[in-house]
Amino acid sequence: MNSLPGNACPSSSNLVKEPGCKGGTPDARIWQEDLPAEWLNAIDPPLYYAHYREYEISAERAVGYDADDKPCFTCHRFLLTQSSAGETAQPVVTFSERMAAWHLRDERRLVFRRNSANHGSEPASFYAFSSTMPR
């Protein structure tokens, strides 16, 4: 979905050498979340993650690493919001994106993307193959 947003930076506390992380909490299933079951045997699961969070907007990114310390999984999520008018002044989502990519054993990358251009619209989702890991 991107490289790190402009103001995001990793800190030493963001490198989680545990089975996984999601929202700062260890979660071993993060790499399986959007992976179709038929592709489960085509990848090696990440051993640890670096987790990044943007502090000005709702955005996060995780990169999973294999036994050779090479990226084998990446995912990111972000929401762009706009203030709504009225007494409640709740933010309204104007754009959202979610991406996940897995390094396949045959050296391709399986990429999943889901985005929505406005609040309330049905998100568009698709899978594709890539020769490089998305940023």
Structure description:
The protein has 135 residues and is mainly beta. The chain has one domain. It is 0% helix and 42% strand. The chain contains no helices and seven strands. The protein has strands at 15-16, 48-53, 58-65, 71-83, 91-103, 109-116, 124-130. Strands 1-2-3-4-5-6-7 form a seven-stranded antiparallel β-sheet, with no helix packed on it. The protein is elongated, with a radius of gyration of 16 Å. The termini are close together. Residues 1-26 have low confidence and may be disordered.
SSE diagram, text form:
Layout: E1 15-16, E2 48-53, E3 58-65, E4 71-83, E5 91-103, E6 109-116, E7 124-130
Antiparallel strand pairs: 1-2, 2-3, 3-4, 4-5, 5-6, 6-7
Distance between the termini: 6 Å
Structural class: mainly beta
Radius of gyration: 16 Å
Beta strand % = 35-45%
Tell me about the largest β-sheet. Answer: 7 strands, antiparallel
Number of helices: 0
What's the SSE pattern?
Answer: EEEEEEE
Number of strands: 7
Helical fraction equals under 10%
* Largest sheet strand order: 1-2-3-4-5-6-7
The rough form would be described as elongated
Number of domains: 1
Output mean pLDDT: 75
Unreliable segments of 5+ consecutive residues: 1-26
